[in-house]
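Record pair follows.
FIRST:
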Amino acid sequence: MEGVNHSVVSEFVFLGLTDSWNIQLFLFVFSSTFYVASMIGNSLIVFTVVSDPHLHSPMYFLLANLSFIDLGISSVTSPKMIFDLFRKHKVISFRGCVTQIFFIHVIGGVEMVLLIAMAFDRYVAICKPLHYLTIMSRKMCILFSVASWVVGLIHSLVQLAFVVNLPFCGPNVLDSFYCDFPLFIKLACIDTYRLELLVSINSGFMSVGSFFVLIISYIVIIFTVQKHSASGSSKALSTLSAHVTVVVLSFGPVMFFYTWPSSTHLDKFLAIFDAVVTPFSEPCDLYIQKSRNENGNDKSI
């Protein structure tokens, strides 16, 4: 953070989402509703899993971790976005911007590892049900949780180490409603082509790579079950549908941001969706699907 004092720029100005009062009102109601619902829904999932002994299983442990992370996703960008909707001068301090970037990428890295862990959990539960409790032990669950935070911190710090000391001498306008690497780097007073490429490769490769690992793992599960039982295949497909939905919601916007970085209205739409809607829908989809499976006495799924 020492480089902050050497930059002329002490704050950044957001252009926001729109100048239309009617659209701002709609976005305020829409964003506020989903933000409150996300905070309540994810908090209830975490509380329910922690307080109910019957839910102290590997799947619910990972689900509670995902819900906790989604509380962070909702809180990093949404409150300021909602607060800034009707403000003409939308600003954030240099340190505030860097802090926002740091937490966005820490949480993003943690979430990716947790989703991979949940895919592994489903693979073991569906393909090796007799060894499920042995493989998915408490030690393994804790290992997944610790690994997710280590990966998230490394992912964020590695990128931040290259950009935090960049000189910023103006302009200081970000065509967005939150801080992130692609637009942040473009405002530096030096040639940042290599840094932009580094960020795109780092975040883009991590998101695209994780996405394909997850999709391939689900395909392997379907084909493995299909070889043994047609009915098992339909049950597996029903179970994995919620996971696939969550993966698409999580990785779709992120892959677009970092593999095709630009400044368009589509970027902003996807950013709103990713910041407001995704944290609400992810754990709810998984929790509902898991509850249905258990109510249907399908313990292996």
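SECOND:
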Amino acid sequence: MHVLIVLAHPEQKSFNSYLAQQARATWLEQGHEVTVLDLYAERFDPREGDWHYCDRQDAQRFDAMREQRHHWNQQSLPAEIERHIDLLLQADALIVQFPFWWFGAPAILKGWMDRVFVYGGLYQSQHRHEHGVMRGKKALVVSTAGASEQACAPDGRDGDMRLLLWPILHSLHYVGFDVLEPYLIHGVRGGLAPEAERKQQKYLEQRTLDYQARLTRWAQWPSIPFNQEQDFIDGQSLRPGAPTYSPFVRHIP
């Protein structure tokens, strides 16, 4: 199996970077191939824009979807985008590793999805959701938060972290991934007093070991349920009586 780990943290000595390397080591010990894609280390440009495209289909007005499809068809996407797409297509499993900043992922990760999940290549009207290009592949989101687990709970002051991650989880599902339940670690903070820092270090070591152990049982990791094509009328409106799995896709009273 080939595993792709996409890391979005600016500090290579961070706990997120450490987790990515521990995941890499765990997969390698099991005999798998692993690639770590460090977006900050590569100085990835998250901004989608006309300057990335050398052979514009419309030189007067920039339409991101139109230019992505055109350059995909012409095989003239930027070299780094082609490389990242190739890594995705080669991978059997994807791990997306990032810190939870301002109730979401760092901008560089959102921009990576904007630019790499190209229209016409990784998705189009006939190839999305359960029919997506990435069907048959699994994706896992691993994220850390500075707030406590209770603060990030459904009744917590900061809101339900699992729910706030839905846009990223749904985006992975949109291109066809079987999306696994995210692995979340709370209370990852700096600037602590010595005793608090020792306590946190022990906690993080335990969570790291738990994470590695769960990776060795990859086939048993639970998936997130999403509505399927048959749950919608004309592919748009939730059919009466269809199941619901998220407040983002629900029946209107």
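COMMENT: The first helix runs from residue 15 to 29.
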